[in-house]
Amino acid sequence: MTTLEICKNAKASAVSVAACGEEARNQALLLMAEALEDNKDDILAANLLDVEAAKEKLGEVMTDRLLLNSSRITAMADGIRALTRLDCPVG
Q1: Contact indicator for 39, 83 with CB cutoff of 8 Å
Q2: Helices 40-55/70-83 angle, 10° precision
Q3: Nearest 10 degrees: CA dihedral of 39, 87, 27, 72?
Q4: In this structure, are residues 68 and 37 in contact, taking their beta carbons and an 8 Å threshold?
Q5: Spatial contact of 89 and 29, defined as CB atoms under 8 Å apart
Q6: pLDDT digits (tens, 9 = 90+) for 9-68
Q7: C-alpha closest to that of 24 among 32, 36, 78, 10
């Protein structure tokens, strides 16, 4: 799936996400955070391939920003979980 396809799918699903209740949204966010942590090894392996490919096109600073490690994935999952503690932005 291309980045453009992912973006189009995300935009198309925005309406249904907005229509679902806060509890369902929060459950989805918690599942996303869990999936990040559960798939950490696969994500890190794929990321290394992406970073290697990016080195040919991007500078060192930008390439470093793409590099994931266990701590960065944990921080992403924690950030997603933090969203569930915010007031509902819809409605």
Answers
A1: no
A2: 110
A3: 10
A4: no
A5: no
A6: 888 887 777 778 889 889 999 999 999 999 999 999 999 999 999 988 988 888 889 999
A7: 32
Residues in the chain: 91
Q: Quickly state the pLDDT bin for 91 (edges 50, 70, 90).
A: low
Could you say which DSSP state residue 83 is in? H
Q: How many CB atoms lie within 10 A of CB 26?
A: 16
pLDDT at residue number 77: 98
What pTM, to 2 d.p., does this model score? Answer: 0.78
CA distance 80 to 35: 11
DSSP state of 86: S
The per-residue DSSP string of 5-55 comes to HHHHHHHHHHHHHHHS-HHHHHHHHHHHHHHHHHTHHHHHHHHHHHHHHHH
